[in-house]
Design goal:
single chain; alpha+beta; five-stranded mixed sheet; 11 helices; disordered N terminus; disordered C terminus
Length: about 240
Amino acid sequence: MDAVSAKSQRKSYHQWCPVATALDLVGDRWTLLIIRDLLVSDRRFSQLRSELVGISPTLLSTRLRDLIADGLVTQTGNRYSLTERGRGLHEVISALGRWGVPAMDVPKRTDHLSADYRITGLYSLVQTSRITGPPLSAAVMVDGELVTLRTVDDGVTRRVVIDDEPSVDADVTVVATMLGLISLHTGRSSAEDAQRAALFASMVSRRRGLFPQPHFAGGTLVSWAERWQSGRLRRS
């Protein structure tokens, strides 16, 4: 069965509406999670299969075939990557993650953590539009693994890039758990409570503007940094 035939058999809302059209393309189960993982890096089929626990090889093949037919994914050998149009879903995925954060709770024993959950989680906690001033970088130790967050400005737009490349001279250093960052973001914990629970170990900042979330209890991460440097936030 060719890609066109496969695409014609997919369900549709049959509505002349941008939202319905978008859901026709990426609204099937697993599709957005495949795109989420490919936004971090290219993947082999076996990598996607191991990270998307619960998806069958047949269904994964179908979803990838549909994404290729729709011009969102390209295949080179045994590797899959997003096209430029596919990468256009980055802000959609991040916004969907931000919307979902308040509904998150402590992970269950049966919950699977994807290989890049730290990176995708941080994308959901950062609002690029609220970061102003010169380019910024942060070294973030999340659950014992180091990731780097930096802003990139092309003169027209500003975006945030998060990856596992080391930061030589970070403006901000954060040590925390993902659960701690989410608890602080949703206001379930104060900075002091998170520290006592060993969810948020430290915050040191030399620059303003990173993680400027309006819903953090105890102020923004910038205010934490100021309190940290003045000794008003307990060092651990």
